[in-house]
Amino acid sequence: xxxxxxxxxxxFIKTTTRDNDGRFSVxxxxxxxxxxxxxxxxxxESRFLALERNANLTYEEFSTILAQIEAVLNSRPMYPLxxxxxxxxxxxxxxxxxxxxxxxxxxxxxxxTASHRLSRYDRVEQxxxxxxxxxxxxxxxxxxxRTKWKTRREELVPNTLVLIKExxxxxxxxxxxxILHTFPGKDGLSRVADIKTATGTVRRAFSKICPLLxxxxxxxxxxx
Length: 224
Description:
SH3 type barrels; five-stranded antiparallel sheet; 40% helix
C-alpha cells in the first residue's frame, strides 16, 4: 500500500461509521465552532431559518428535503473514474458512500406548478426539483469555466471525459463522452470536437462541452 493510500484509509477509518442498516455516516473534519467558521456559519443559519419560515415545512418534510439535497450533491460528477478511453463513468461522492450512483424515481416536472395546488409530498418534490434545476446550471457553468479555450495549452485533448450539453434536456440526462478529435480554426485554436459516447460519435462546439478534468489537470489549470 502506498503512502497516499494509507493516509486515505486512515482518514476513512477516523471519519466514517456504518449503522445497523448498512448506511455510511461521514463526519466532516471541520470545527462546529461558530467563531472558527466565521460569517459562513451565521449566513448558513439565517438561510435555513428563512427557508423554514417561507416553506412552512414539518420536521419530517424538512429532513426529507435536506436528505434529497444531500443526495443531489453526492451524485455530481467530479473526475474521470479512470484514464481508460472506453470508460465513460465519472467519479462521484456516492461511489465512496454506497459504491454506486445515487438514483431517484422518475417524477413529473413540478418546477412551474403553483405551490398551493400541490400536496405536501409534491411540494417537497417541487423544492428538490427547483434546487436541482438551479444547482445543476451553476455547477455545469463552473465545469465550463475550468477551461477557457483561449490558449493552445488550455485546449481539450483526446480522451478527456466530458458532459455534452443538450439545450432540450435537463442536465441529469446529458450524455458523457470522451474527446476523439479536435478541429483547429484559422487562428490555430480548436473550438469543435468529435466525441465518443455510449451510442456513437457526435460533433459539438466547445461551448456545448463541460470537461471533467482529472485532479492533476484541475490543479494545473487552477495554477495557470
